[in-house]
Amino acid sequence: MAEATKKRALITGITGQDGGHLAALLHEKGYEIFAIIRGQHNPRREATEAEYPYVTLIEADLGDQSSLIRAMQTAKPDEVYNLGAISHVGYSFKDPMLTADITGKGVLNMLEAIRLTDPENKVRFYQASTSEMYGGLDYNRPEKGYTEESAFHPRSPYGVAKLYGYWITKNYRESYDMFAVSGILFNHEGERRGVEFVTRKITNAVARIKLGLQTHIELGDLWPQRDWGYAGDYVEGMWLMLQQDEPKDYVLATGETHSIEEFLTLAFKEIGIDDWKPYVKQNPAFMRPAEVDLLLGDPTKAEKELGWKRKVDFPGLVKLMVEHDLAIESTKV
Ligand code: GDP
Description:
This protein has 333 residues and is α/β, with parallel strands linked by helices. Helices cover 41% and strands 15% of the residues. The protein has two domains: 8-190 and 228-255, Rossmann fold; 198-223 and 258-298 and 316-332, UDP-galactose 4-epimerase, domain 1 (Alpha-Beta Complex). The protein is built from eleven helices and 13 strands. Strand 2 (32-37), helix 2 (45-51) and strand 3 form a beta-alpha-beta unit. The N and C termini lie far apart (44 Å). The model has no long low-confidence stretch (mean pLDDT 96). It binds guanosine-5'-diphosphate (GDP). Guanosine-5'-diphosphate binds at residues 89-90, 132, 187, 196-199, 201, 219-221, 224, 226, 260, 286, 288, 291-292. Guanosine-5'-diphosphate binds next to helix 4 and helix 7.
């Protein structure tokens, strides 16, 4: 892409899993990339600069609207990807207020910052919405999986805050004719996932057990089921949503659901262990006040209209994550 026509993107959530995958994708596509990072002396700043040298970091906070206006004025983006959030379901029960402020109202702060700095209404906005908005209860769960039309019933302060973000995005689209869309993404994992999430916690522990660095893993409930895809596939879908003629919301999912126990079984198989029971202890500290039983998404609309399809399947995802953790952890032996 010629320098003069380089597209500009502003990302919130650069230190998170999706921010990293998206920055890498947009860099490949020739974008000039800006990202906000919180506060002075952020301990993650140096690592972020080292990992994404092609990203210009701007100090701003989703909780501080004036800082977002300044970020918009500096970045002058064509596209804004709002991936920043207090993003852990379990943690949101411990800090529901902060989750509401950042995961919920932070979306409004960003949308207002765009509206106030973009009088010609040219900026395209992506909101990271989530399958946690559906809640996974029997009564509203379609057999083939949740679609863009399914009813919501969030089961955590995180899910409730994300639902606000979803609706305010729709409201700004309808009220101000903004190109503002939500991707309703089912769980997506990978080598950039934090160990506070169950998949990475498992693959990291499995690698450490194999290398003799750890004896067992403590987990909560193993029966909940999730529609797990690979994050690298999902950021491609985010980008596609902003390249369409019309702003619309889309579900991104694999269309398959698997229990944590299945994930655990495959992960241990990768290191040659068939019976994982001696290595796993249940700890109630990792159980939640309300649980999402089963998530299954129906990605038909995204597949038809965006031409999107996940490339990495469930066994492929487990394998990729275990191999990555084995490579990292073996440097510690
Ligand atoms: P979520 O789907 O966004 O909540 O992603 P998580 O990876 O945090 O949790 C997925 C499922 O794993 C939830 O049903 C959790 O209750 C369950 N789970 C069981 N043990 C653990 C654990 O030790 N850590 C986490 N994070 N989740 C666990």
